[in-house]
Backbone:
């Protein structure tokens, strides 16, 4: 029996024996929030502090408790049969559970996250896979995958996708890489990625381009992480200059999230650096701006106050203050004001000339 | 003298005009100034002399007064007129039956007439009947009756009601009031058709005859009037229904204009305890009234006057009052009336006197209140309370309250309030009534009900409040709302609070039962899934799965949290 399966059995046994002893069974989960993580500069990611929440089986919790146990049983089957199931499929499977079924997918997702945290593994190890797309890659990289039917190695050359790109699969642990590129450029929007691909920027700059499409998925984070770990490449993030780009996208890429703190050690890129757009770039490149939204201001203030990552880095605190003082935000496509390819001709080369100045 | 006056008059008039013109000019435009000047030239106003005025001054009969002010008596509109007419007649019937010790049986019939908006109302009772010679005065003379001059709890108080109804009928249709009455089984009934001479406030007899009426005794009143028949709120039907609630000893029959017959059955064969008439309590008497009583008394001395004409004044207390007023106990009452009434009045109010006797009150009683409520309202919970008697302005009164909750009552919307004074339902002017004030100022949220600020409580609730008194202080002659005496408001509130506490116990208990039932069902729905999951993970047998279900159900039901 695998390690996970025996962990599940162990938990189930403890629940049962408590019922037999006529005491209320409990399950305890690590508390998944920013308040329960600390930043380890040496390890380079957000780590759980150890606060736990205990769910006791009472009248009020009996429904979620039953659902959690049924989902655990499902996970055990998946692991035993080496099967996979998407979150959406898990939701549909629950429709067989009569009264214990989930009405909406967010309910089943929460239970899944709970189980994942309970065993301190990532859900892929339990057989649950995400629905979301992993991100796209173009540039000087050869990915070595296996054919699903024969298991024979497949060499995928990421320069050969023309105007398209290679899709990062949901699980990346089995992939191997070959490259001669100098760095990885992780881009927030698909639009900017398209521009760089169309003009063959990866050839010019000798790099690998990754489109994150907003907050990077776990697979995307893990993919970039393995590139930086195994090929010793630096990774630079190129996102919008607003609190969302900085603390939802970049922070999650670099150190992981509070919600998934139990798995951050795998799903983060501690060596990532922030290329731009920085608040100073708005000034230096005279970018057109929009006023900061109420929620953005709130997010920035919240980051200053509660985010262990921001609290560790002075330059970030200064950048936030500068942004709040200016009261504006700018998108990475704003360079189009000067020239459509201004970003390729001027901005990126100028920034890349001095990687030391990138925000940590 | 006459000459000087006539001479000086135009001067004064001119002056006045000039003054007003000036004023107008200073205030407004030139145009108005011009108009004012023209008026002064053309019309020299002539003022009436005292003689002129005297020629126009004459007596106003009560009847004439109320013809003009019929809204004061509850005849504001055709719809209300119908209700008031029936109400006055039914009240009289019930009063008479009870006083004669007869269980009342009253029949109300409304028949539409040929003309639109005109109805013929017939009210028939099994009461003691009325002596022939009294009939014209009772039915066709305002302010004639037996109830005004005594302090006794009864529905009627003033002696206006039924004659006003007859007068309204006469005014709107020109038809006389018909009365048939029989006082004993042997003998025949009298039949009268009467009109009111509104100038003199005297009855005018149209028909006076003897007829055969096959009943033991009783009275039948028929009035034709302009009216509007409607169902629903403030309708005749509602009045009769509410009457049935507060008078469980009454049997009512009601035939609507559509020919439907509604019967409100008697649920109690107990007549209300006959109340005693009481003498006025000294605290409730005003100075003018005191002087009048001093004049009219048959007592020789002041002490015996106090002792005999008031309630709760013993010879000793009378002596104390006289001493306080610094007048002799032996002085003549009529002399005091002229010279020392004021001192006596103050002395009375400074002397401590026992509260008035309360055997003059006849509350419905908690048991019959409940019976009445249960008869007419289908609810899940009933409660009633009768407060001990209290006093306002020297008049004893007693408050009773009842609640009906749940059952088929509508759960949304405001609670319904039934107000009664001396067993008569009050349907109009709810917002002006002291009873409503008390309902509104009671904090119903304390009693597990919902209530917005300044509003009636919400929920499936009927609130019934009855005030019994020798003199109910109505805000107007139409007897629709009780005046705001602090003592009354307080007593009503106390009664409501007492009912509220009992209601709260019921509501909370029921809520708890529902809640625990819900929890139990909830537990039973999800526990099997805990067991299924454990069986799957631990590869248990079905028997073991069942054991888990029983153990867990037991565990959770014991804890109930």
Residues:
């Amino acid at each position: 029996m695998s390690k996970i399966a025996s962990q599940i059995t162990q938990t189930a046994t403890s629940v049962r024996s408590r019922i037999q002893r006529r005491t209320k069974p409990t399950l305890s989960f690590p508390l998944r929030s920013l308040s329960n993580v600390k930043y380890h500069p040496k390890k380079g990611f957000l780590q759980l502090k150890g606060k736990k929440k205990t769910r006791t089986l009472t009248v009020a919790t009996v429904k979620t408790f039953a659902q959690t146990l049924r989902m655990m049983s499902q996970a055990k089957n998946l692991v035993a049969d080496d099967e996979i199931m998407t979150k959406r499929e898990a939701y549909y499977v629950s429709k067989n559970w009569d009264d214990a079924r989930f009405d909406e997918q967010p309910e089943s997702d929460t239970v899944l996250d709970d189980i994942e945290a309970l065993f301190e593994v990532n859900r892929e190890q339990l057989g649950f896979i995400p629905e979301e797309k992993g991100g796209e890659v173009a540039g000087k990289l050869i990915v070595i995958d296996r054919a699903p039917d024969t298991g024979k190695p497949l060499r995928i050359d990421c320069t050969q996708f023309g105007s398209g790109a290679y899709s990062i699969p949901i699980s990346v642990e089995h992939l191997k890489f070959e490259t001669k590129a100098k760095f990885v450029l992780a881009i927030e929007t698909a639009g900017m990625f398209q521009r760089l691909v169309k003009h063959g920027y990866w050839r010019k700059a000798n790099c690998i381009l990754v489109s994150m499409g907003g907050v990077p998925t776990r697979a995307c984070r893990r993919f970039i992480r393995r590139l930086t770990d195994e090929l010793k490449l630096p990774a630079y993030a190129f996102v919008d200059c607003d609190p969302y780009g900085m603390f939802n996208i970049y922070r999650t890429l670099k150190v992981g999230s509070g919600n998934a703190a139990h798995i951050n050690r795998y799903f983060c890129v501690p060596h990532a650096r922030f290329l731009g757009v920085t608040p100073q770039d708005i000034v230096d490149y005279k970018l057109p701006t929009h006023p900061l939204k109420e929620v953005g201001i709130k997010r920035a203030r919240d980051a200053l106050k509660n985010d262990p990552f921001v609290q560790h880095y002075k330059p970030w605190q200064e950048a936030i203050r500068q942004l709040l003082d200016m009261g504006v935000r700018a998108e990475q496509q704003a360079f189009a004001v000067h020239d459509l390819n201004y970003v390729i001709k001027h901005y990126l080369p100028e920034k890349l000339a001095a990687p030391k100045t990138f925000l940590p | 003298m006459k000459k000087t006056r006539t001479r000086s008059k135009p001067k004064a008039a001119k002056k006045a005009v000039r003054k007003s013109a000036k004023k107008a000019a200073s205030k407004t435009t030139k145009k108005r100034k011009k108009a004012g000047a023209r008026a002064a030239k053309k019309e020299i106003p002539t003022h009436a002399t005292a003689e002129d005025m005297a020629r126009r001054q004459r007596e106003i009969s009560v009847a004439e007064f109320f013809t003009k002010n019929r809204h004061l008596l509850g005849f504001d509109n055709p719809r209300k007129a119908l209700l008031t007419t029936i109400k006055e007649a039914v009240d009289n019937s019930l009063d008479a039956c009870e006083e004669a010790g007869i269980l009342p049986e009253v029949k109300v019939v409304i028949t539409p007439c040929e003309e639109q908006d005109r109805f013929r109302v017939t009210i028939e009772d099994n009461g003691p009947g009325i002596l022939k010679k009294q009939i014209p005065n009772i039915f066709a003379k305002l302010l004639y009756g037996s109830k005004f001059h005594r302090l006794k709890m009864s529905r009627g108080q003033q002696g206006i009601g039924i004659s006003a109804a007859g007068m309204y009928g006469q005014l709107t249709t020109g038809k006389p009031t018909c009365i048939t009455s029989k006082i004993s089984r042997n003998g025949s009934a009298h039949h009268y058709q009467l009109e009111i001479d509104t100038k003199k406030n005297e009855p005018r007899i149209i028909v006076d005859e003897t007829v055969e009426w096959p009943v033991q005794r009783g009275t039948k009143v028929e009035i034709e009037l302009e009216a509007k028949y409607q169902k629903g709120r403030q309708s005749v039907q509602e009045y009769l229904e509410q009457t049935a609630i507060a008078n469980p000893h009454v049997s009512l029959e009601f035939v609507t204009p559509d020919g439907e017959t509604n019967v409100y059955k008697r649920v109690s064969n107990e007549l209300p305890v006959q109340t005693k008439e009481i003498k006025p309590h000294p605290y409730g008497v005003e100075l003018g009234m005191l002087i009048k009583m001093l004049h009219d008394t048959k007592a020789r001395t002041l002490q015996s006057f106090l002792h005999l004409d008031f309630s709760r004044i013993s010879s000793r207390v009378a002596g104390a009052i006289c001493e306080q007023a610094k007048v002799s106990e032996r002085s003549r009452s009529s002399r005091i009336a002229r010279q020392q009434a004021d001192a006596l009045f103050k002395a009375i109010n400074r002397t401590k006197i026992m509260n008035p006797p309360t055997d003059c009150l006849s509350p419905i009683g908690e048991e019959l209140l409940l019976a009445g409520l249960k008869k007419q309202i289908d609810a899940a919970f009933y409660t009633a309370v009768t407060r001990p008697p209290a006093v306002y302005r020297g008049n004893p009164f007693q408050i009773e309250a009842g609640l009906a909750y749940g059952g088929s009552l509508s759960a949304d919307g405001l609670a319904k309030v039934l107000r009664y004074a001396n067993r008569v339902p009050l349907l109009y002017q709810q917002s002006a009534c002291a009873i409503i004030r008390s309902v509104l100022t009671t904090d119903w949220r304390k009693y597990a009900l919902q209530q917005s600020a300044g509003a009636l409580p919400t929920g499936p609730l009927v609130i019934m409040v009855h005030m019994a008194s020798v003199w109910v202080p109505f805000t107007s002659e139409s007897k629709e709302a009780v005046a705001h005496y602090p003592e009354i408001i307080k007593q009503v509130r106390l009664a409501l609070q007492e009912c509220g506490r009992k209601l709260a116990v019921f509501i909370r208990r029921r809520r708890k039962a529902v809640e625990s039932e819900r929890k139990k069902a909830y537990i039973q729905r999800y526990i099997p899934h805990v067991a299924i999951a454990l069986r799957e993970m631990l590869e248990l047998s079905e028997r073991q799965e069942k054991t888990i279900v029983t153990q867990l159900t037991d565990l959770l039901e014991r804890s109930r949290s």
